[in-house]
Structure prediction request, 288 residues.
Amino acid sequence: MNIKSKIRNKLLSRKTDSHKGDYGRVFILAGSRGMSGACVLTSLAALRSGAGLVTVGVPASLCGPLARRLAEAIMKPLPETHDGTVSKKAIPIIRKFLSSQDVLAVGPGLSQNSETQSVVRKLILESQIPMVIDADGLNSFKGKSDLLKNIKAPTVLTPHPGEFVRLFGGQKPKGDFERRKRALEISIEYKVVVVLKGHHTVVASPRGEIYINQTGNPGMATGGSGDVLTGIISAFLGQRLSPFDAACFGVYVHGLAGDLAAKDKGEISLIAGDLIDFLPKAFSKMAK
Prediction:
């Protein structure tokens, strides 16, 4: 069965008597002063990918502006540092809230503020619910990657090659064979699903599974594209897919939306928001 058929069978069919709670409560910890757009992209992507409820945890000062851009998401104001990033005072608030959530997405636009990074590490290592860790969520473990071996919950890491090297060391993997090899080694060693982004994105599982994505185009090499992918994978986790399936389906749909957008707008003009706009067409195309 090809991936399009798997997506159709596992994701696109909904019971007539279902409700929003059946499709996952996703908590997105993202954003900081100057990087609020990451919250918007991740949240809208999750909503457009079928998440039942999306809550965005952000520094309190961002809630007003973000609420005007995210009518369908719930805002969770959090204590912030002087730099406008999530502070350690947010830990008990987030910890309590996560008890009612199905998925934690962490990283987009959080900044590399040291206090915020300590918050991120603590929450990730404590989490009992499936997670997607991206961007500054990954950067929080720079020089401390062994801590990731203590993760308790099913987890998807979504590094681009630069983040991969910063986190796990070595040279930047080049060529399809080396990318597959490195992604699989890390996945098995750390017992997480690894999404090594790039041309022909690689998805590797701790069980030795490998998926090489064939959708996508160079126009997607633009700021915010990774935030959109985080939102998509988070939504799929919330719909009870396994971490490996959520990641494989996520990169496929992400790339397909990018291909449809590029066909309409051209690769040069593509922006991350276009990927979200074309998600409905991507799902419709797969449903046929």
